[in-house]
Amino acid sequence: MAGERPEAGAGTSVTEPRPPASRRGHLRMLGPGIVLALASVGASDMVTTLNSGAEYGLALIWVFVVGLLLKYALSEAIARLQLSADRSFLSHATDVGGRLFPVVLLIAEVMVGLFFGAGVASITTRIVQAIFPGLPFWPTFVVVLGSAVVLLLVGRYGIVEKAMVGFAILMFFGIVFMAVGSAVDPDAQQTAVETVVPIFPQGSLITVLSLIGGVGGATGIMAYTYFVREKRWRGPAWKSVIRTDLGFSYSLVAIFAIAMTAVGAFWLFGQGHTIESNEAVFDIGTLLGEQLGGFVHVLFLLSFFAVTYSSLLGGFQGIAYVTGDCLRVIRTYPRQDAPSADMRANGPEFRIALAWLTFGTLLFMGTDKPVSLVLIYASISSLILPVLAILLLILLNRKSMDAQLRSGPLSNAMLVLCLLLFTFLAGVQIVETVSELVG
Are 83 and 405 in contact (CB under 8 A)? Predict the structure, then answer.
């Protein structure tokens, strides 16, 4: 029957959604982009943006904007590929090199499972302890980690999306409130006037390029395609919805980056402060509390919690999708597109990947966190974005691609820029890794 498709392994049919015709209808469809935004923003981004404001005021906001435009181009391109057929991104990737990309990606994602959760769950636990002093670390850590895992195991994608919307409201209300509250200070207004003109710091090319490349990550961009599949958006008619959804997503990330840069600029610029760790972010919260009142300190901690817990939840979900699909494609290739082999959030591959993430988190928390392991992962993962750009340039320019979804000159130009930038950054990362390991 038109407009319906049978669910794999079920005897019922699910009505296909229809793309809205109006802009208001587009806005009502927002969802996957919010999940992408919150999964992409974490504690390290708070450190980066606050430190940028502390060192350069508002002068490097343009760097984050350029980075987001490049990530938008990658996300929009991979989403168009997803709309072209009812296949996962990794199924498409087998058209170029067979199992090669899924195998390489699986190695990187398996290494993510060894330390991603440990870092994010640990800082989230510290925030909970700051909000509720006296709570013991390990029991709180287990509750934080377990709640995210259970929500992903028992909840459908829609439940996670609703939770992420709630975190987005808390996170951005709190951060914007702090930025606006900081801006009323006369000294802050003077700082804004002095540093609002964009600059390119002398001798800081690699720093600037790293900031451009450091907004968001490859896993989040690939995971977005699975969120789109969960919504059952397929075909060229959904292209405008995808663009609206991604535009809103990266607008949220831009607001976060600008607001946190402003907080760093208005309170720390010119005072010799350098924010290089998650611990220093707690000090900023204390400083804001002293200057603006205890309410702002609590609001800062709640916003910080929303940033880190949503990063944990969205990160686990995205990594589990990508890792699980790697396992599925490698196991079933070349029959990976058979309905019986479809990638599902309640499928065995997703659950295996989630179990590995949980195990890796607990294992890594019980070790001395070997630096070499992290460096090796960083080198492997740095290669993913350049390879992703190459794949999209090939797959989206094929004659077999629907003309409405095929890449045009602007998209191709942006993908080439992404390829050049991320290849350069990957080279820098590999050189640094080799130097650290042999030195």
Answer: yes
Distance, in Å, from the CA atom of 233 to the CA atom of 36, rounded to the nearest integer, reads 16
The answer for residues whose C-beta is within 8 angstroms of residue 412's C-beta and 6 or more apart is: 393, 397
Q: By C-alpha distance, which of 117, 144, 137, 129 is closest to 42?
A: 117
For tokens 């935004």, name the residue. Answer: 37
List own/partner pairs for 347-352 with CB under 8 A and 24 or more apart.
349/323, 349/324, 349/325, 350/320, 350/321, 350/324, 351/153, 351/324, 352/324, 352/327
**Separation of alpha carbons 279 and 422, rounded Å:** 29
Any idea what DSSP says for residue 44? H
More confident residue, 299 or 193: 299
CB 123 within 8 A of CB 42: no
Per-residue exposure over 145-181, b if at least 16 CB sit within 10 Å of its own CB, e if not: beebbeebeeeebeebbebbeebbebbbebbbbbbeb
- Quickly list DSSP for 144-170: HHHHHHHHHHHS-HHHHHHHHHHHHHH
For residue 403 the two structure tokens come to: 């003309």
Work out the pLDDT band at 147, boundaries 50, 70, 90: very high
Q: What's the half-sphere exposure (Cβ side, CA atoms, 13 Å) at 333?
A: 21
Residues 147, 305: Cα–Cα separation, whole Å: 14
Lowest mean pLDDT among 176-185, 350-359, 406-415: 176-185
DSSP string covering 65-81, please? HHHHHHHHHHHHHHHHH
Report the candidate in 261, 265, 310 with the shortest Cα–Cα distance to residue 127. 310
Pair of tokens at residue 416: 């080439």
List the single range of 9-23, 242-256, 423-437 with lowest mean pLDDT: 9-23
Given this model, what pLDDT does residue 141 score? 94
Secondary structure E strands in 239-317: none
Tell me which residue of 60, 47, 49 sits closest to 261, measured CA to CA: 49
| Tokens matching residue 195 | 């540093």
* Separation of alpha carbons 156 and 149, rounded Å: 12
> What CA–CA distance (Å, rounded) separates 53 from 45?
12
CB half-sphere exposure, 217, CA atoms < 13 A: 23
Torsion on CA atoms 248, 41, 156, 228, rounded to nearest 10:
40
Model confidence pLDDT, tens digit, residues 345-360:
888 999 999 999 999 8
Q: Is the alpha carbon torsion for 118, 383, 32, 341 positive or negative?
A: negative
